[in-house]
Amino acid sequence: MKFASFKHDGNNQAGVVTGESVLPLARLGADAGVTLPDTLLDLIRGGESTMRAVRDAVAAVEQKGRANEIGLSIASVELLPPLPSPPKVICVARNYAEHAREAGLELPKMPILFPRFANTFVGHGGPVVVPSVSHQLDWEGELAVIIGRDTKGRITKAEAMDYVFGYSIFNDVTVRDYQFRVTQYTGGKNFRSSGPFGPCIVSADEVGNPHALDITTRLNGKVEQHANTGTMIFDIPTILEHIADFIDLEAGDVIATGTPAGVGFKRQPPVFLKNGDLIEVSIDKIGTLSNPVVDER
Q1: HEC string of 100-130?
Q2: Domain spanning 2-79: which CATH class is it, in words?
Q3: In the CATH scheme, what is the homologous superfamily, with its name and number, of domain 83-295?
Q4: What is the pTM of this model?
Q5: 20 to 30 Å CA-CA from 67: which of 82, 89, 140, 233?
């Protein structure tokens, strides 16, 4: 199943994406005579019983032929980040060998992690902002893992995928000079309106193997990054096991798994995002995350 968060008639809602429509959870629940969660975070926290209730409600609506009546056109809503306020956002750095090489850095011996703050998120179609203090704004298309339940302690690689709810797309837009002024990444990775996330979350069963997905980043229609998630240095079970060594994963956590080669700051000459650009990240079985670029005002 595909899920989205969106704004319609001034209200923030969540729903199931079917084709070019979204079925609001509130309408689905009312039609089926059940109470469904108001947000995707609550849906994820509800576990399998809540997912079963959503599936049953969608099936009932489709069986009665009422999907068109209940659904809203995707074009008529404002898509929001699928999880506007997840418990944690953890990003993996230098997780593709070719990206490490283009940056002139050693291959890591264990996952390199840094935090993202959710108030940097931008939904599909929302503007990425070039800050007034720097013009070194770069793209990083990534696969995002959405955690489905709390780990409550350490986990092994063998069981790690049991904790995955689904997947989304993240663009870890980075202000390069702020990133490299010091030895930690936090500043350059957390500028306002620099974290495109979406357009939806796709459940793990629908994606299948997350290590066999093509990921492509386009700038104004031109391919800048293209790779397959199967070439990650550290696969998802390894990443989750490593994180759970020191902190509990929680339902709704977002883990961005790193970007492949093709970023702008290593071009000759360097290429950075500027006002009027369109940056897009596409991943098989998930979709395309598209965002215009504007100057800070």
Answers
A1: HHHCCCCCCCCCEEEECCHHHEECCCCCEEE
A2: mainly beta
A3: Fumarylacetoacetase-like, C-terminal domain (3.90.850.10)
A4: 0.97
A5: 82
